[in-house]
Amino acid sequence: MELGVIIPLYHFEEGFKKLQELGFTTCQLNSFDVSIMTEDMAKGVKEASKKYGIRVSALWCGWSGPHVWDFYEGPHTLGLVPLTYRETRIKELKKGSDFAKMLGVTDIVTHVGYLPEVPTTTEYHSLIYALKDLASYIKKNGQYFLFETGQETPITLKRVIEDVGTGNLGVNLDPANLILYGKANPVDALDVFGEYVRGVHGKDGLYPTDGHHLGKEVKLGEGKVNFPAFIKRLKEVGYDGPITIEREITGEQQTKDIIAAKELLEKLI
Ligand code: MG
Disulfide check for 166: which of 11, 135, 187, 213 has CB 3.0–4.6 Å away? Predict the structure, then answer.
């Protein structure tokens, strides 16, 4: 397993430079704005990736419109679940796929949203239909479409992957998200969808303590993710890809926490 960090596409040059200085070899590039995903940008990213020796393992592609990370507005604003934004966001993800193709990147990751837990609903079927269209497009580009975990239970995510059934679907397992949303223990989640994991985030967090707000994201090692057990289980299910550290703060403290996370993870992988 290699270690990496998630970095903003918009600041790729300084991101790559910093990762090289910190001794990383991989990254995921992240952007919620697909308008910057141009041929020129792709050219620049490829050159910088070579220059600094940082491999881009996946494009974490966001989408336009509101996004509220909570239990109330979240279901109505996040990912491809809300009908209001679905069509536009699918177009944006297709653009992201084309951009990743220019980069030679085979994995596109996003939050699809609060996947409907009940499969016998119109809401569920219409989402499956839309995902088939998107995943087929991504497949034609020779790529995988990865669901970032968190807003659904592991079994619902597995069911969606089975029902979309395009053969190019995977999971980007963010162990903290499963905890922040109170959906599952990430170690046990591997029993459910372990075979589909193609990406992993190195992030930690606490369970929610009230019904309105997500749990708190914290420094890796200080939350509820049992990293020794998690890494051990990842190895057991045959995962050998990168662990991409994600720390959702900014500034000097973010860098300090990323270095600490790297040291902790190096001992376990
Ligand atoms: Mg994540």
Answer: 135
Distance from Cα 246 to the centre of ligand 1, integer Å:
6
Pick the CATH number of 3-268 from 3.40.50.300, 3.40.50.720, 1.20.58.460, 3.20.20.150: 3.20.20.150
* Residue 58, amino acid: A
| Structure confidence at residue 115 (pLDDT) | 98
**pLDDT category, 31, cuts 50, 70, 90?**
very high
Q: Which residues contact 11 (CB under 8 A, 6 or more apart)?
A: none
Distance between CA atoms of 206 and 268, rounded to whole angstroms?
21
- Domain ranges (residues) in the chain: 3-268
User: How far away, in angstroms, is 44 Cα from ligand 1 center?
Assistant: 25
pLDDT category at 122 given cuts 50, 70, 90 is very high
